[in-house]
Specification:
CATH topology of the largest domain: Phosphoenolpyruvate Carboxykinase, domain 3
Order of helices and strands: EEEEEEEEEEEHEEHEEEEEHHEH
CATH class of the largest domain: Alpha Beta
CATH architecture of the largest domain: Alpha-Beta Complex
Strand content: 35-45%
Radius of gyration: 20 Å
Number of domains: 2
Length: 300
């Protein structure tokens, strides 16, 4: 345990800092490849400061509700900051933590309740509350500031080329990912959530620590060369889509903060650029090895 650590997803590094030791054992196992020691980020990566504290923050005056689930978490903001509060079993449940985030999403302080403290070898350690909803909300907003978006998709690297397979639950992402993982040359970055970013004039697909049924979560990236929208069919086929058709299918599969106009606009712009520059297709397939061979031939 240490007072500092880092968490990297899609070239965006959260630099965790705390006056108490951080209990990194609290992270789910899929986070392990994305955790690292504190230090200077590699060139091209973005550092975001996240301070962990114990105790409640000062109650803001004049904050306006941005989004409220009604039963677990709520997001509000004032002229300087966003406030994300987790309080399950409302209205009777206590606030477990409050994240105070600067409006440019470059700095955050997470004020944790006493329940986040754990004693290990007689030392009080703080369990970082970087799980749902804080983790995915942070990256949804952070990606919007850095030419990116979080997509409900499987993603693989085939001979160094990134392939994206967006789709809702039940579309076959994890099934296809399992088939691809069994073949030489394929590396499954994730079977459920992929981050995409424009970096250096090209779009990259990044693995994330939020896997699906196959449990695929690699801290790797690949240049994105094609988008395949999945459709169950009687015969395997690859059908080209226009950028407009691709945008119409990609939008529902993307985490977009519809309730917050500025980041919403940034994400939509990223998607427009993505479908304009990366070819998109409908992948009609039956579960089986033939579709794998079809994809291999397409990228040969």
């Amino acid at each position: 345990m240490a007072p500092r650590a880092s968490l990297n997803v899609a070239g965006l590094t959260l630099a965790l800092d705390s006056p108490r030791r951080l209990d990194l054992r609290s992270f789910p196992e899929y986070y392990r490849p994305f955790l690292g020691p504190p230090g200077v980020p590699p060139p091209g990566e973005v550092h975001i400061s996240v301070r962990m504290e114990v105790g409640d923050p000062a109650r803001p005056s004049g904050d306006v509700t941005v989004f409220d689930t009604g039963d677990s978490w709520a997001l509000s903001r004032d002229s300087d900051s966003y406030y994300l509060r987790l309080h399950p079993n409302r209205p009777s449940g206590p606030v477990l933590w409050t994240a105070v985030i600067s409006c440019d999403w470059r700095q955050a302080t997470v004020h944790c309740g006493a329940a986040a403290l754990d004693r290990h070898a007689d030392v009080a350690a703080l369990a970082p509350p970087l799980s749902y909803p804080l983790d995915q909300l942070l990256w949804m907003y952070l990606l919007s500031f850095h030419q990116g978006a979080l997509v409900h998709a499987a993603g693989v690297s085939l001979r160094g080329q990134g392939l994206l397979f967006p789709g809702k639950s039940g579309a076959g992402k994890s099934t296809l990912a399992g088939q691809l993982a069994a073949r030489d040359g394929f590396r499954v970055l994730s079977d459920d959530r992929i981050a995409v970013r424009e970096v250096g004039g090209r779009f990259l697909a990044y693995g994330t620590p939020w896997p699906g049924d196959q449990g695929a979560a690699l801290n790797e990236s690949a240049p994105l060369c094609a988008i395949y929208f999945l459709r169950h069919a009687e015969a395997d086929a690859i059908v080209p889509l226009s950028p407009r058709q691709a945008a119409e299918r990609l939008l529902p599969a993307t985490s977009v903060p519809w309730y917050d106009p500025e980041p919403m606009t940034r994400v939509v712009r990223v998607l427009d650029a993505l479908v304009a520059r990366v070819p998109a297709f409908e992948l009609r397939f039956r579960p089986g090895p033939d579709v794998v061979a079809l994809l291999e031939g397409r990228t040969a």
